[in-house]
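User: I'm writing a tutorial on reading structure tokens. Could you give me a worked example: one chain, its sequence, then its tokens, then a sentence or two explaining what the tokens reveal?
Assistant: Sure. Here is the example chain.
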Amino acid sequence: MRDLSRIFKAYDVRGVVPSEFDAEVARATGAAFVRLLGADRIVTAHDMRESSVPLAAAFAEGATSQGADVVAAGLGSTDLLYFAAGSLDLPGAMFTASHNPARYNGMKLCRSGAAPIGQQTGLAEIRALIEAGIPEYTGRPGTVTTRDLRDDYARHLRSLVDLTGIRPLKVVVDAGNGMAGLTVPAVLDGLPLTIIPMYFELDGSFPNHEANPIEPANLRDLQAAVRAEGADIGLAFDGDADRCFVVDERGEIVSPSVITALVAERELRREPGATIIHNVIVSRAVPELVAERGGVPVRTRVGHSFIKAEMARTGAVFGGEHSGHFYFRDFWRADSGMLAALHVLAALGGQQGPLSGLLGGYARYAASGEINSEVADAELEMSKVAKAYAGRASDVDHLDGLTVSLPDGSWFNLRPSNTEPLLRLNVEGRDDASMCRLRDEILVSIRGGRETF
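And here are its predicted structure tokens:
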């Protein structure tokens, strides 16, 4: 058996195929998954990577060996798997490595109703079961049946956002050769939209660019196409299509914090006084706007398990992260890039102005974006930065790493990566000049010398 400590991450299982993650691991995980949950029926889906079909099949073998029946949904996005787990009320497994390069693959696991499984909520127990050796099951083995859920998924998403009466829009969509190439046509068909597709061919080798829209370099083709086509909006999805990034009619990248604010406002109009979740690195404009619109902003740690747990605790209607993950109570508190895209299209199509004008009021501050620095000792570097700002800060908290607010309204968050020897820095200021000064000051401290940032 492979070294599971290398591939069982904070929120999922992910590794290089086959040296770290192979059919043997998938089969054992399927068996342990069923054992842990006591499940008699589960659902699976997989992305377009070449290794996804055999890994999903091996997982199903493990699950059926423990007596569970498997509903195999086949090709789908991660949010399609969440739809399946929610609508069928079954535990689920999605085979994808999301935005990672082609040599990777992985599994995202959830309980019935799309409740997440991470290290603290079952993943550690699954790993322990595998390492201890799964007891032999002597009952009837389960069966595998296939079921195409794409149309049901599309109908459900369309039922959650009112798109009746929107004006015609020209929309460029970059699927990055990922699963949005399958799901976008299913969801957007029949709307008054002229779709200009980019890289819709399902290809897990990612021949055009990485399917990771958080990296600006991967949005350049979309930006150029929006300008060339005179489009109203551009949409970019990651490999498993659970994240969505937006480009406006000028070809400018829209911050996911701005999309969080837009969707939050729409949800608050529908449900006044509702709770909205945001993580520690989302723009301060988000909680400000939520409060101004009569909602209740609740701040939480970065990561889907924390967002979903807080949504369950508070009954929040919506949650947003700066990484482009958007969570909806009415979608089993799961994240869906496609559902966020529908909200943006509904907002844009419901008025006559350009997207940049519609979103102008949500972008109140200058942000650095997430900057990673490789360090030998993350905790030591964070401690040094904390001491340096101790006398200057108006507020300091440690909800997720180190967050320091300064009297001029600027702030930063510095937190260690869960999986790599990195510190992740996010800075926001009242304007570009104040943001850049603070950003460069911190990076010089962390990296030990002046660099070009």
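What the tokens reveal: The two ends are 43 Å apart (CA to CA). The chain has a mean pLDDT of 95.
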